[in-house]
Design brief:
Blueprint: E1 13-18, E2 22-28, E3 35-42, H1 49-60, E4 65-70, H2 80-97, E5 106-110, H3 114-124, H4 133-155, E6 161-162
Parallel strand pairs: 1-4, 4-5
Antiparallel strand pairs: 1-2, 2-3, 5-6
């Protein structure tokens, strides 16, 4: 069931920009109107501590949803960067499933040009280019999340595509059913 256009489901959402070296994290206010930067986390492909940190943030903020940017090409196709984002989101789904907020949905949303826009915004604000590295991922996460919030407000439904649903532990037929 879709809500009316102009409304957003209540609750904090987390926005994530996954890069090769860093993961930018943003959050919304509880009313789902405004995205703000939270943290930049170093990528850890070997041990997934970056995924664990995002789970900690989502748990601390009692997030009702996590929005992960999906980097598509300008023509809408998906390349290696999109495959990496999908893989990262799958790791997050698995890790989140073990957390107290394990049923929190994860959605992939188109993030075309968000990093470019984030760099532009930082440059326009007067921040020197060499200082962008530490905050550009957070700024991109803010843009991803704000776009998702605005899309939901305009359409009345959640944005993007849902990443696999968490496994539910149900008894097998014939076994303690």
């Amino acid at each position: 069931m879709t809500e009316a256009a102009g409304s957003v489901r209540p609750g904090v959402r987390i926005g994530v920009d996954v890069g090769d070296a860093r993961v930018g994290v943003a959050s919304s206010d509880p009313s789902g109107l405004l995205a703000t930067p939270v943290e930049t986390v170093a990528r850890d492909v070997e041990h997934n501590s970056d995924v664990d940190r995002v789970v900690e943030i989502a748990t601390e903020l009692e997030a009702v949803e996590v929005v992960v940017g999906l980097p598509r090409s300008l023509d809408g196709s998906e390349g290696p960067a999109a495959a990496k984002a999908r893989e990262w989101a799958a790791h997050l789904r698995s890790a989140l499933g073990r957390a107290p907020i394990g049923n929190t949905p994860i959605r992939l949303v188109d993030e075309r040009l968000t990093t470019v826009d984030a760099h532009r915004g930082l440059r326009d604000s007067g921040l020197a280019g060499r200082r962008h590295r530490g905050v550009v991922d957070q700024a991109a996460a803010v843009l991803i999340l704000q776009t998702a919030l605005d899309t939901e407000r305009a359409t009345g439904g959640p944005p993007g595509e849902r990443v696999g649903r968490p496994r539910r532990r149900t008894p097998r037929k014939g076994k303690d059913a």
